[in-house]
Amino acid sequence: MKIHEYQAKELFKKYDIPVPAGGVAWDPPAAVKTAATLGGFPVVVKAQIHAGGRGKGGGVKLAGSLGEVERITGKMLGMTLVTHQTGPEGRRVGKVLVEQGLSIVRELYLGIVPDRSTAKIVVIASQAGGMDIEAVADRTPEKIVKVFINPLDGIRSFHCRQIAYALELPQAAMKQFLNMLPRLYRLFVEYDCSLLEINPLVLTAEDKLVALDAKAGFDDNALFRHPDILECRDLAEEDPLEIEASKYNLNYINLDGNIGNMVNGAGLAMATMDIIKRAGGEPANFLDVGGGASSEMVENGFRIILSDKKVKGILINIFGGILRCDVLADGVVQAAKKTGITVPVVVRMEGTNVEKGRRILSESGLNLTTAVDLKDAAAKVAGLVA
Amino acid sequence: MSIFINAKTRVLVQGITGREGQFHTRQCVTYGTQVVAGVTPGKGGQEMDGIPVFNTVREAVDRTGADCSLIFVPPAFAAEGIMETADAGIRIVVAITEGIPVLDMMKVKNYLAGKAIRLIGPNCPGIITPGECKVGIMPGPIHKPGGPIGVISRSGTLTYEVVYQLTLQGIGQTTCIGIGGDPVTGTTFIDCLEAFEKDPETRGVVIVGEIGGTAEEETASFIEKHFSKPVVGFIAGLTAPPGRRMGHAGAIISGKSGTAGAKIAAMKKSGIHVCEDLGLFGEFCAKVFGHA
């Protein structure tokens, strides 16, 4: 799960990690009011969306007066911000963060992520801050330092020194950094983060380190123990069909294509999307109804795909194991009766209770095409898009 | 022959009294698996279909000689359950549980390091040696006993699809292992390959991977150097968008890392036979392994 920069900075404050003075605003008067408390100019107005690359897209602006704050905020709110991370459709800006401007001497990078292959927590740092860290890693890997930490042992001061010396910090900032990194690490583990990133971490003219930006992501599997993070969820950042699917615990992702699909199991769902592509179509979604889906879940999943306007055909692919084919068939029939089928539907079923499932579908009187195996299903999908 | 489990494996089920635990214990017993004990804290002394239930794994091992554990414990408690088996002398632990926090799994993996225990999963369908022993939730009848092919997969139902197509072609399996769809898993493709290399009955291996991480790339370079038998590979997720978690917690393309294209390229470069059309998977394998 992602949260906004302003929410991440609230978390940082909780752990005494310095951030610029400022506050979030939903309208120009509030932005002006916040700017007036910052004690000088310039101030920075930053669009709050769940995507990086905001600066280049016009989502970060300097203001030299309260009038400018009002004008910039007015323009930014409601605008559609397109960055390399939002896709061409962009994101609507609903709030801005207003912050004091700082006199910046150096821009550094500091991040913490889990490393899946070593099962260690990695602290990543670089003197080349303020840039896309993946590009830095690609072009100049020697500018990146990584320290691996065993989560059973936790971070030690020598870990912190290793990073601090690699960053070549001045003496005053060094002490501050050695204090700050263990707190950032604590935030990471106490909140089950999937990512913490400060890019840039700036060194000011006063030799102070400040988190100019803040990015935090959280492990979805661990949200059950972090109700305060769940409260940060911003539905405006999510796709309406995905919000609907999440109500029924369905693993659904809305995509750009024309062929809807419903599958049990994530791997088989991805493979089914690939089959659609090979057959000449484009998947309109990812939908894993899960291993133990009830007919209600299937019904809701099918209804969500049917309500997607760009869908020109649907492929249902079920390998019955725990999810029995008759349960699936029931769900499909219920949804079809309630919503009505307006596009061709190809159904491929195999596994537990497949005969019973096929009978339910054929006796339903619905206009469904059955496929005997995956090869046949692919050919029939190709027929849909031809 | 087989790897990791066989007809002699003595299984205990952690979470045996829960809905899922009960259902799948019965399925395993029906398949012929020796389920000798169950563990549910607080329910020691009870029985489930005549199988004795204990409060702790240690007690279950001491009393029944179980050497393998199958875990259906809910995500919040699963990490504890796995670590408990390591301290009780279990040889192989299979964690079906989906949704264990990544940080918990990182701690588990470091806790198990250096101990004589193998963890399979979590978030996996389990492991089966067809005709001998099923420790997991996969449908038994789709498998064909007797080998000669080993199967390793990060997925559940996609594994069933692949195994079923092998069986329809008359190609049996030695052992099929679901290593799990989480970012941090106990057993890797490479661990399984090392075991399959030593198993004389296994004459070829199928690897089913998916987007996310770099396990398939590392496996490909291992195969090039250390694996002598023919390998067929399949990768799911060519059409998956970057930055989105595709159901499995581990199935996410981050930045440029973890794409299906990179994995397929690495596999081909290492001499793995990559099947790109799942509909023709069985036929593809028949061709490759026909010459095995």
Verbal overview:
The complex is a heterodimer of chains A (386) and B (292). Chain A is 37% helix and 25% strand. With 386 residues, chain A is of the alpha+beta class. Chain B has 292 residues and is an alpha/beta fold. Chain B folds into two domains: 1-122, Rossmann fold, CATH 3.40.50; 138-292, Rossmann fold (3-Layer(aba) Sandwich), CATH 3.40.50. Chain B is built from nine helices and 14 strands. Chain B has helices spanning 19-31, 57-64, 75-87, 102-112, 157-168, 189-198, 215-226, 260-269, 281-290; strands at residues 10-14, 34-39, 47-48, 51-54, 68-71, 92-95, 118-120, 126-129, 133-136, 148-153, 172-178, 204-210, 231-236, 273-274. In chain B, the strands form two sheets. Chain B has a seven-stranded mixed beta sheet, with helices on both faces. In chain B, strands 9-8-11-10-12-13-14 form a seven-stranded mixed beta sheet, sandwiched between helices. In chain B, helix 3 (75-87) packs parallel to helix 4 (102-112) and helix 6 (189-198) runs parallel beside helix 7 (215-226).
Instruction: Estimate the mean pLDDT confidence of chain A.
Output: 93
Nearest-angstrom radius of gyration of chain B?
18 Å
Using the coordinates shown, work out and report the CATH topology of the largest domain in chain B.
Answer: Rossmann fold
Structural class, from secondary structure content of chain B? alpha/beta
Largest sheet of chain B at a glance?
7 strands, mixed
User: What is the CATH top level name of the largest domain in chain B?
Assistant: Alpha Beta
